[in-house]
Write a structure and sequence with these properties.
single chain; about 170 residues; Ubiquitin-like (UB roll); 5-stranded mixed beta sheet; elongated
Length: about 170
C-alpha cells in the first residue's frame, strides 16, 4: 500500500533515469550521442534527439514503411530497431540525401514523375526505393512493385511511384 507522499511517476522517472544508456549514432555524417532509455526506437531517436523530422512515424508496427531509413547502407524500418541496436552505426535519413544543394536522383525522379501526393509516405518510399536500386540497379516494373510492397501510400495507385523508381534506375 502506498504511503502518504508516494508518487509513482517520480519513482518511475528515477528508475528510468538510472537505466538510461549512452547511444552514439552517426546520422547524415554527424555524430549524435545521447542518453536514452534502452527501449527507445531508432525513429524516436532520429526525431527527438537528432531533431530530424523527415523520417515519419506512421504506424509503429512496421506495416507502413513511412519510417524507412538506411542503417549501415541497408534500408530498414526505424520503428522496428532500437536506438541501442544502431549504436555505433551510420544512419542516412531523407535529409541526408541531397549533396551540395542538389536533390538525390531518386528525389528528382519522384518530383519529375509525380510520385507523391500528400507527401507523408514519400521520405520512406524514397529511402526504400534507393535501397531497392542498391540491390537491383535494373529492376523491372514487377521488381519495383515487389520491392516496395512493405511501404504504403494511401493517396496514389502506386503507378507514378513505380514510374519514378524506374526513371531513377535509368539515370
Amino acid at each position: 500500500m502506498a504511503g502518504a507522499g508516494y508518487r509513482p511517476d517520480a519513482r518511475r522517472r528515477q528508475v528510468l533515469q538510472f537505466c538510461d544508456m549512452k547511444v552514439s549514432i552517426t546520422i547524415n555524417g554527424s555524430v549524435h550521442s545521447h542518453d536514452v532509455e534502452p527501449r527507445t526506437l531508432l525513429v524516436h531517436y532520429i526525431r527527438e534527439h537528432a531533431h530530424l523530422t523527415g523520417t515519419n512515424i506512421g504506424c509503429d508496427t512496421s506495416s507502413c514503411g513511412a519510417c524507412t531509413v538506411h542503417l549501415d547502407g541497408e534500408a530498414v524500418k526505424s520503428c522496428t530497431i532500437l536506438a541501442a541496436q544502431a549504436d555505433g552505426g551510420s544512419v542516412t535519413t531523407i535529409e541526408g540525401l541531397s549533396k551540395n544543394g542538389e536533390m538525390h536522383p531518386m528525389q528528382k525522379a519522384f518530383m519529375d514523375n509525380h510520385g507523391l501526393q500528400c507527401g507523408f509516405c514519400t521520405p520512406g518510399m524514397v529511402m526504400a526505393a534507393i535501397g531497392l536500386l542498391n540491390e537491383n540497379p535494373a529492376p523491372t516494373e514487377d521488381d519495383v512493385r515487389l520491392g516496395l510492397e512493405g511501404n504504403l501510400c494511401r493517396c496514389t495507385g502506386y503507378h507514378n511511384i513505380v514510374k519514378s523508381v524506374l526513371a531513377a534506375a535509368q539515370k
